[in-house]
Amino acid sequence: MTEKKPTRKNLRVEAEAAFEEHRRISRMMCDLEQWLDEPADCARTWSECLREQLDPLLRILGPHFEGEEASPLYKEVPDEFPRFAPSLDRLFEEHQRILGDLRGILEEATATTVPVRAQIRELTLRTKMIVFTLRRHESEENEILQQAYWDDLAAGD
Ligand SMILES: [Fe+2]
């Protein structure tokens, strides 16, 4: 059985949904950064509050990354535009690293009931670095989608 090739219109609809999911993840990252900068209003321990921030993000990121790796949006891209293939390979390899780093931080934070101030500072810094990486990562994906489904296909409309 031959797989049916998605139409350009369908791919654009999927690309819109991908942008929307990136916006949703971006909002979660903003909330996380805000909390990292001002964790004062947290009534429980810092670790518990960090878990409250990271759990929902991890729950979304896992399926989000899996969805991207299986999506026709990205599968079609290297066929039609081979110049994007190396970037996509690199971005997809980064998925597991981002998840692993976030899980590692959460594990470390919750390994001790109340982490000392220096440990909180270090974990805060590391979490911020992952947020930075994730923002850059999603922005690179957006850039590829933009070029593949708007700029490059504009002539085909
Ligand atoms: Fe993404």
Structure, described:
This protein has helices at residues 8-37, 46-70, 72-80, 85-111, 117-151. The chain is mainly α and 157 residues long. Helix 1 (8-37) packs antiparallel against helix 2 (46-70) and helix 2 packs antiparallel against helix 4. The mean pLDDT is 89. Fe (ii) ion (FE2) binds at residues 22, 64, 68, 138, 141. Fe (ii) ion is lined by residues 22, 64, 68, 138, 141.
Question: Helix and strand layout, with pairings?
Answer:
Elements: H1 8-37, H2 46-70, H3 72-80, H4 85-111, H5 117-151
Helix pairs in contact: 1-2, 1-5, 2-4, 4-5
Question: Main attributes?
Answer:
Four Helix Bundle (Hemerythrin (Met), subunit A), mainly alpha, binds fe (ii) ion, elongated, 157 residues
Low-confidence stretches: none
Largest β sheet strand count, sense and barrel closure: none
**Average pLDDT figure:** 89
Strand content: under 5%
CATH class designation: Mainly Alpha
Helix content: over 70%
Q: Would you tell me which CATH topology applies?
A: Four Helix Bundle (Hemerythrin (Met), subunit A)
| Shape assignment | elongated
Quick description:
This protein is an all-alpha fold and 157 residues long.
